Amino acid sequence: MDQFNLIRTLAEKYADYTAENLGRLVKIKSTSSNEKDVQHEVMRQMNDAGFDEVGYDGLGNVIGRIGSGKTILAIDGHIDTVDTGNLANWDSDPFSGEVVDGFVMGRGTVDQKGGVAAFITAGRILKELAMTDNLTIYFVASVMEEDCDGLCWKYIVEKGGVRPDFAISTEPTNLNIYRGHRGRMEIEVEFTGISSHGSAPERGKNAIYMASQTCLEVEKLNENLKYDEFLGRGSVTVTEFVSGSPSLCAVADYAKIHLDRRLTWGETKESAVAEIEKIVAPFKAKVIVLDYKETAWTGLEYGMEKYYPTWKMDEDSQVVQTGVKAFTNVFDKAPFVDKWTFSTNGVTINGIYGIPMIGFGPGNEVLAHAPNEKVPVTDLVVASAFYAAYALELSKTV
Fold it and tell me: What is the reported pLDDT for 131?
């Protein structure tokens, strides 16, 4: 039997194994910084699959290794999830992990424990077939992505000393190959006014008015941002408005707005900040790019600036074309190549470190962060076959 057909056959054979592994992961709640219990289950599953080495780093990322070749491939999936939100919006237990009508049900099935379960099966297949001896493959169940995408890989590269030659993100892509997405950043703007008695507002300087005028200008800015043919237009929106005054009978002397800025190709941290600084110059407001710093489940405090660079790979690049060939070889059809709407760990893997990468994952991204999250078992089968096929295809070219 052809090697790629053999991979597909084994992925189908292990469909129940993959679904059951995912169900076990879903049953364990694992919001950002609270991944300890689920990471122990990930390590158990990796060991059960026969990985050569399994452990976790100082931040709590679980890293399983197969092979010891010169070329390094990393397959990443974040193990943390968002919380459930209003339980009344769920038709079933968010942490059931049950298989119902061909779907694994529950929080994280799409975003993105499904990718982790699928790559564990891919590791089992690769160990069984022993086809990729010239590669080192790291399977990374990463942490804290929902709170700060890319932080986990900042630690892996800068503290762990792991810098792969190629990477795959297993975020949901509806079984398409994705080659980029817009970047993002979090900006805070602080306005300082002068309070006065509410009966004589003309004596003061109202920070709320300054911030409100800025909000209207930000709305206009959103309609005139840079456009990229592949990634689309950049965007900016106000997501929080806070104000303060000595009393409800006094002019507000403080206001703050929070901006969600999405960056298309050619936009940078510096250009985005300059746009806002121009708007608020008459108010002498302070524009701040925020920082993130939190304590991981291991007890380590770690952080980074909340600037997540835009990234995209050329469609004819090696990392993309290896994926196209692997998909075509294992499924006898060409894949659809596209992009994510949301942000992923790619902001660090490629956006900061320039590591060539693609995305391929089970599930539809429209279900990410939504109630009644579920992933088809057939998607898990396809994804596990693809990851193994990608490693095989890569091993033939390096």
Answer: 83
